[in-house]
Known about the structure:
Elements: E1 2-7, H1 10-15, E2 19-23, E3 29-30, H2 31-41, H3 44-48, E4 56-59, E5 70-71, E6 76-80, E7 89-94, H4 102-108, E8 117-124, E9 128-129, E10 132-141, H5 145-159, E11 164-170, E12 172-174, E13 179-187, H6 190-207, E14 210-216, E15 219-224, E16 227-230
Amino acid sequence: MRVRVRLYAVLAELVGVRELDLDCPGSNCNVREALGRLWEIKPRLSSVFPGFEGLVVLDSNGKRLKLDDKVENGMVIEVLPPSAGGERIYVRVAGSGESFSLDDLLNLLDSGDETGATVFFIGTVRKVNRGGVVSELRYEAHESLREKLEEIAGDVLAKYSLDSVGLIHYVGVRKPGEVTFIAVVRGRNRRPCFEAIRELVERVKHEAPIWKREVRSDGVYWLTGDKQVRVS
């Protein structure tokens, strides 16, 4: 079984390349065994990161992997060293098939000794909207979406003197009850965090280049701003 590994920062420098292919032992291999093979080839890694301490491992879709998760032949895994205090801004545009652990998201975000508040907003698809029963909601986005989300997150981070901001927005088809949008802020006190999360969500709603096509029992609609346009 062969796995492609992408390395970042100090890991890439220690290994000497940013990508390499690894032959995993046996037909069943997990993340721990794949990394163990790399650590055997590059023993210097063992002295810097014994037991894979502090590493973040992601699949090619950005989903965080555990050491015991299985890998498949031809799979790409990304290995990240501990960041300098965590990410102050984490933004991701997610596909329909991706899922996220809130704990994993928190682990990617910066916090400090004075961090005293973490506030989440989680948007989901309504089952009933404007009197019609919703069967699906499809999000379409411009390619500049990620850049715009990063801009909004940076503005809010600076305005409220936050420790960190995270934004994950789904594109593609979502069903009633499924998550469409996750926003999180971390800071010293709850009041600025509450104000920040409200502004963050409202700005994404009104400024991000995202459009919604809603299929309901009474027709198919594009939702644009506060209006809806029936197309069938």
